[in-house]
Amino acid sequence: MEIIKPKKLPEEIFGVKLNKKLLSEAVRVFLANQRRSRAKTKTRAEVSGSGRKIWRQKGTGRARHGDMYANIFVGGGVAFGPTGRENWKRTLPKKKKEKALKVALSQKLKDKEIFFVDSFEKAGQKTKEAEKSLLTILKNAAKTTLVFGKKTPKSCLPFRNIPWVEIVGAEELNPYLVLNNKYLVFEEEGLEKLINRFK
């Protein structure tokens, strides 16, 4: 696996002006769409137990009540708690998504945190060999996104167990993956696919 210098990087992908507001919006939408509703509380209708009236209606001097599962009692149902059906989904127009990715890539290139290699398959078949190959390219073992042209179990296997490496295909790349990791490493085929994706 050797570093290569691409002939010419398209200016419309790798030379876009920084737009922090757009990047922030794209990341927020991406993270919101990863969110799942797992929290769930029981309402007074769902708490199991007797429905017996806890004390008589009149003559006790206390407020009238039905069963003991009202939300004001310990062990009662919860009012306005999470239902497990919350919808966190957000959308971003296609043109905005594309521009946000271009802005993120342009910034990475400007910061000299993008590397291009001929092929990841040349890194070897063992995790130790693959990690050593990556460290000869990168400055340190910081969080890194590897962009594959074609993700196959065989090509991904050597990198899969490296804790600071994230593997993606060129069609899966998004602003969050670019910005969340320190370095971005493209293989030649991955770069071609990315350029074609914008065409």
Q: What's the short version?
A:
The chain is α/β, with parallel strands linked by helices and 199 residues long. The protein has seven helices and four strands; from the N terminus they run αααβαβαβαβα.
Comma- or semicolon-separated keywords:
199 residues, alpha/beta, Ribosomal Protein L4, Chain: A, 34% helix
Number of domains: 2
Question: Using DSSP, what is the number of strands?
Answer: 4
What's the CATH topology label of the largest domain?
A: Ribosomal Protein L4, Chain: A
Q: Given the helix and strand composition, which structural class is it?
A: alpha/beta
Backbone shape: elongated
For the record, the CATH class of the largest domain is Alpha Beta
Beta-strand proportion: 5-15%
Q: Give the overall average pLDDT.
A: 90
Rg of Cα set? 27 Å
Order of helices and strands: HHHEHEHEHEH
Please give the CATH architecture of the largest domain.
3-Layer(aba) Sandwich
Write up this protein.
The chain folds into 2 domains: 11-18 and 89-198, Ribosomal protein L4/L1 (Ribosomal Protein L4, Chain: A, 3-Layer(aba) Sandwich); 36-87, no CATH class. It is 34% helix and 10% strand. The chain contains 7 helices and 4 strands. Strands 1-4-2-3 form a 4-stranded parallel β-sheet.
